[in-house]
Write a structure and sequence with these properties.
Largest sheet of chain A: 4 strands, antiparallel
Number of strands of chain A: 6
Strand content of chain A: 5-15%
Largest sheet of chain B: 4 strands, antiparallel
CATH topology of one domain in chain B: DNA primase, PRIM domain
Shape of chain A: globular
Distance between the termini of chain A: 54 Å
Shape of chain B: globular
Oligomer: heterodimer
CATH class of one domain in chain B: Alpha Beta
Largest interface: A-B, 21 and 25 residues
Structural class of chain A: mainly alpha
Strand order of the largest sheet of chain A: 3-4-6-5
Number of strands of chain B: 20
Number of domains of chain A: 2
Chain lengths: ~350, ~375
């Protein structure tokens, strides 16, 4: 484990051992439920989740890496730790995913700033160490760039579909890829989100703490807002379920995956207007573009060709197939479930 | 293939494996590799074999009279178990360069079509001149140009591996494939453990696929001269400038042209350039991390030539250095309309004629389906 200073834990609270931190600060969870001063922090934690649920990044009390005053630092960490407790108590996975993503984005900012820090070498070294420890990417500083081995770069870049991330479009020299601080951090965004998510998922769920009930109930109410997906009820094949899942998580579904999902649902008789909202969580969502593209696939614009759902074979080569025994040797996702009747 | 021809090839191959056992060796970390082989006239492959040492390998070749022998580039905990139980550990990087993928103009001069229906042999045509069938099998007797062009691709590949990817020259091994090209192995690189999708990205890099104008200095909005690559730059930007600008003195003028022609025209330039400067490797081979690849020292049944290590690629002549069969005289019925050279002797063209030729030439023509035993 990394040895972290107070302000570093505030920036990267997911690195802290929650139980140990509370103990070190001389608190127990129960105190937060009863002590009125501490209870404010539970409200703060709720706010932190709410902001994340709205797809925004929590604005902290930290100003330019430094806390405005010494008391702000532990507050910052407590609100994160308490947010996790609330999320665990609510058991709402959609909220956990959104929270993890927002926290990843927040940490991303600090990581980027620390990497680019020229005045404080220790800050830079910590950022480099976090990236290495958590994501096994060995970053080195070389002049104005950060360089990482090509093999490490590829392990992460294959998750991007934009051409600028292709190795051919990168500055490659001596087996290393040259990146800016922003690109270095961007490269591990997905993994950072996954890391925080799994940390929360794997945390122990405490029994209800007196004084926390209100906030937990508010969370349950909040999570209802995100249960508007009307299309996930039917028996969809695993590839389609997986694609919907990715979009729900707000993660990036590659072009080929979006193509598959849209053509599948169009073939199942859904309208463009019904399908479009599915993509609203996509990182690069633009309603106008989505409608245009869906219309194109449906044959309502362009050449008038109606595109059909790709075969299982094709999906396999595109790494979009997650076949289960239920697939029963079908050759196209559209056949899923039909044979059993 | 006729049984008598199969028997003849099996005997010839067996003799080779007996007399040249020094050429066929197990690779390093033998016990972690999967071996496999094919037999004449069987379409299937016998694989998931694990082998201990040279002796066991020779025994396998002698007992089973394989037409082709293979070995994995991957290392497994249990190479002899089924695919999903093998426990994949890592795999050497492998590359296949084949003359037939190079769009060479010489190809039509030495490619014949064999009709699957009536066995009629014709010079490279679209359908059988005798029965009009379109089920044709193409066979090529690669010429010097094919081999030289393949060597050029190997050189391009090696340069990228060494300069861009920092592979030690000592870890690059080049083999003649036994037929129409070369196999390149890279050992102990940083890429040993990367998976198939990562390898596919590496392939695109090596082949110069998917490049965007921005990478080479052409911006979509407000492009400026300063971002175009220089002659002495490393990697693709350097290779791009040498190819596109030609000489340093022409650089400025050509940049002006590129700027005038605009962004989408630049994308087209990149696609054209890719054809010339990208190394033409077979993407499927490099992407495959579970492949069993032809074993060095074994005979390629498409030609009867040996897959052999090239000590000096520039001087390497497969038709002298990869032919190891003896010169016992064999009588064959040859229908080989293309002239070829083997072991410094000229053969053909033969038009449906009975001839006596040395065994190495007979095997070559029978493997190419251009002759049968008389």
């Amino acid at each position: 484990m990394l040895a972290l200073g107070q302000d570093e834990i505030a920036k990267y609270p997911f690195l802290a051992d929650a139980g140990q931190y509370l103990k070190d600060q001389g608190f127990s969870l129960e105190q937060f439920g009863v002590d009125p001063d501490l209870k404010q922090l539970v409200d703060k934690a709720f706010e932190r989740i709410k902001v994340a649920a709205d797809g925004k990044i929590y604005k902290s009390d930290l100003i330019e890496d430094q806390a405005s005053n010494q008391a702000a630092l532990p507050r910052e960490v407590f609100s994160f730790l308490l947010a996790i407790v609330l999320l665990k108590l609510s058991g709402m996975h959609t909220l956990i995913k959104r929270f993890a993503l927002a926290e990843a984005r927040r940490a991303e900012k600090y990581l980027e700033r620390d990497l680019a820090n020229i005045s404080d070498e220790s800050k830079k070294q910590l950022a480099i160490k976090i990236i290495d420890d958590l994501f096994s990417v060995k970053v080195e500083k070389l002049d104005d760039y950060f360089v990482i081995p090509v093999s490490d770069y590829l392990k992460h870049s294959i998750n991007f579909h934009e051409r600028e991330w292709k190795l051919i479009n990168r500055h490659v020299e001596n087996g290393q890829v040259f990146l800016s601080p922003h690109e270095t951090v961007r490269l591990i965004r997905k993994e950072l989100g996954t890391y925080i998510n799994s940390k929360i998922i794997n945390a122990k769920t405490p029994t209800m703490i007196p004084g926390f009930e209100d906030s937990v109930n508010k969370l349950l109410l909040l999570s209802k807002k995100f249960k508007t997906f009307t299309v996930t009820t039917g028996e969809y094949p695993p590839c389609i379920k997986h694609a919907i899942d990715i979009l729900e998580k707000g993660e990036n579904l590659p072009h080929s995956g979006r193509f598959m999902l849209a053509t599948f649902l169009l073939s199942k008789g859904q309208s463009v207007q019904q399908i479009a909202p599915l993509f609203k969580n996509a990182p690069d969502y633009n309603p106008r573009v989505t409608i245009y593209q869906l219309n194109h696939l449906a044959g309502a614009s362009g050449s008038g060709t109606q595109y059909s759902c790709p075969s299982c074979e094709k999906l396999k080569t595109q790494s979009l197939c997650f076949a289960t025994s239920e697939c029963d040797n079908i050759i196209n996702p559209l056949q899923f479930g039909k044979k059993k009747q | 293939m006729k049984e008598i021809d199969t028997k003849f090839l099996e005997d010839s191959f067996k003799k080779y494996y007996f007399e040249h056992s020094e050429l066929i060796r197990v690779p390093e970390r033998t016990s972690e590799r999967e071996f496999g082989y094919q037999k004449f006239n069987y379409s299937g492959m016998t694989r998931h074999i694990s082998i201990k040492d040279d002796k066991e390998l020779h025994l396998m070749c002698m007992q089973n009279t394989p037409s082709d022998v293979y070995c994995s580039n991957a290392y497994y905990s249990f190479p002899n178990l089924a695919m999903n139980e093998k426990d994949w550990k890592e795999a050497d990087l492998i590359f296949d360069i084949d003359a037939k993928d190079l769009n060479l103009s010489c190809r039509e001069n030495h490619t014949v079509s064999i009709c699957n229906e009536c066995n009629e042999i014709s010079k490279n045509s679209e359908k059988c001149i005798k029965c009009n069938s379109t089920k044709l099998e193409k066979k090529s007797l690669p010429c010097k140009n094919c081999i030289d062009s393949s060597k050029t691709e190997v050189t391009k590949l090696s340069e990228i591996l060494i300069n861009d990817l920092q592979i030690d020259k000592e870890n690059i091994y080049v083999y003649f494939s036994g037929n129409e090209g070369f196999h390149v192995y890279v050992y102990n690189s940083q890429f040993q453990q990367i998976g198939s999708r990562e390898r596919s990205e590496l392939v695109d890099y090596i082949m110069f696929n998917g490049a965007i104008p921005e990478t080479f200095g052409m911006k979509k909005f407000k492009p400026n001269r300063a971002s175009f690559p220089d002659f002495d730059e490393n990697g693709w930007r350097g290779r791009f400038s040498k190819q596109v600008f030609g000489t340093k003195s022409k650089r400025s003028k050509i940049i002006s042209e590129l700027l005038t022609n605009g962004y989408s025209s630049f994308q087209k330039t990149l696609d054209d350039v890719s054809e010339k400067i990208g190394a033409k490797i077979d993407p499927n081979v490099t992407m495959d991390i579970h492949r069993i690849f032809r074993l060095p020292g074994s005979i390629n049944s498409k030609s009867g030539l040996t897959k052999i290590y090239c000590k000096d690629l520039t001087k390497f002549d497969p038709y002298v250095e990869a032919s190891f069969l003896d010169d016992d005289s064999v009588e064959i019925l040859a229908n080989c309309p293309i002239e070829f050279r083997l072991k410094n002797k000229k053969f053909g063209p033969y038009i449906n004629e009975k001839v006596s030729v040395p065994r190495f030439a007979a095997v070559y023509m029978i493997c190419k389906k251009l002759a049968t035993l008389a």
